[in-house]
Automatic annotation (TrEMBL):
Keywords: Membrane, Transmembrane, Transmembrane helix. Residues 38-57 are annotated as: Disordered. Residues 47-57 have a biased composition (Polar residues). The chain crosses the membrane at residues 9-30. It comes from the Bacteria. It comes from Candidatus Aphodocola excrementigallinarum. This is Uncharacterized protein.
């Protein structure tokens, strides 16, 4: 009887350890939930208000996010799509995108995060400035594409010009 209880406790501990290991592996390697320091700061001196602002901005950053395969499938007659890296883009570009999102504009801005695995197909050594469908879209760095009536009417790949276009 004591052996059965002892074996049961050992099995329960092993199961808990395996589940913890699976969670940690997922959190660290797949989602970046643990150990991801966005600001590059190692000190945790941020206030709760700053943390709240970061939480709000991270929640709103997914407004109008689409996958690359849906770029030409939007309902609007004219709209813009920014293809960018949320990890590698400058703060100035991120601010320009956020400011455009929070303002009232006639032309809607959709966002494609090329860091996501489903959007990796757009990353290339060269830009295709006149794609006719989603599979032809190739971006070297960042790009702001204006689409009118399901065709590309403008393609901007310079960050400064992108920020000016979003003003």
């Amino acid at each position: 009887m004591k052996n059965e209880v002892k074996n049961g406790i050992i099995i329960a501990i092993v199961v808990v350890l395996i589940l913890a290991l699976v969670y940690l592996t997922t959190a660290v390697f797949l989602t970046g939930e643990i150990g991801n320091n966005k600001n590059g700061d190692s000190d945790n001196n941020s206030t709760s208000e700053e943390n709240a602002n970061e939480d709000v901005s991270s929640l709103t950053s997914y407004d109008n996010m689409i996958i690359v395969g849906r770029i030409f499938d939007q309902e609007d007659d004219t709209y813009m799509v920014i293809i960018y890296s949320q990890k590698d883009s400058s703060d100035a570009l991120k601010t320009a995108i956020s400011t455009y999102d929070s303002s009232d504009h006639d032309v809607k801005l959709y966002k494609v995060n090329k860091d996501e695995a489903i959007n990796k197909s757009v990353v290339s050594d060269t830009d295709n400035t006149m794609p006719t469908n989603s599979s032809e879209i190739k971006v070297k760095d960042n790009a702001l594409i204006t689409i009118s009536n399901k065709t590309v009417s403008s393609y901007i790949s310079d960050d400064e010009q992108i920020m000016n276009a979003l003003k």
